[in-house]
Specification:
Largest sheet: 7 strands, antiparallel
Oligomer: single chain
Order of helices and strands: HEHHEEEHEEEH
Structural class: alpha+beta
Number of strands: 7
Shape: globular
């Protein structure tokens, strides 16, 4: 492992960005490594979450390099200074509950997920992306309980009213809990609306 860079304070995403609304702030009684392995490292974790929300026809890709040369990138819809080390694409259909006279009953959704990780063990995961054509063992990308990260999900719906006007940004941050860093994980979840064009219905979209 190379020397670790200065840690980014993920809390600033929620406290200093007026566009992000904090939805959840809690400590999970499991270590960081378990949260990463169970929820985000492979597609099954996020797929289970979408199924639980009633979504179907789910297709989730693998984490890949965000750029041709493997260097981190910014998310164009995000205003934070974070640079993401990987991204993947998701597609699914979401049952609608409002304005059903317009568009299909089930809204097709496309997502791009951006991954930010920092801390011990991250460089091994990054190297595994560079050699994704080769088999990678779980030991090669074994996470550490000292790591922290953020998954930014950019969602665009199709075939629904005003679908060309906005995208939804979901922020899911995790890091060792301050009072019990080896056994608990602090999780913060927030969202923002990114408008791709001006609209008179911004308040209705946000609601």
């Amino acid at each position: 492992e190379s020397p670790l860079p200065q840690q980014v304070a993920l809390d600033l995403i929620f406290t200093h960005n007026r566009e992000v609304t904090l939805l959840q702030n809690q400590a999970l009684e499991v270590p960081v490594a378990t949260v990463w392995d169970s929820c985000w490292r492979v597609a099954e974790g996020y797929s289970s979450f979408l199924h639980g929300m009633g979504d179907f026809d789910i297709r989730i890709g693998e984490w890949e390099n965000p750029s041709q040369d493997g260097s981190p990138v910014h998310c164009p819809e995000d205003t934070s200074p974070l640079q993401f080390i990987a991204k993947r694409e998701c597609e699914y259909k979401h049952p609608r509950t409002s304005m059903l006279v317009f568009g299909p009953k089930n809204a097709p959704a496309k997502q791009v997920q951006y991954l930010f990780l920092q801390g011990k063990g991250v460089s091994k995961f990054t190297r595994s992306l560079l050699h994704s054509h080769k088999p990678v063992s779980n030991e090669d990308v074994k996470p550490s309980n000292s790591m922290s990260g953020l998954i930014l999900t950019v969602t665009k719906f199709d075939s629904i009213p005003m679908a060309d006007v906005f995208k939804v940004l979901q922020y899911w941050a995790f890091e060792p809990a301050p009072n019990a860093p080896s056994s608990h994980t602090a999780v913060k979840v927030g969202f923002a609306v990114h408008y791709t064009k001006s609209s008179l219905f911004r308040s209705q979209i946000w609601a």
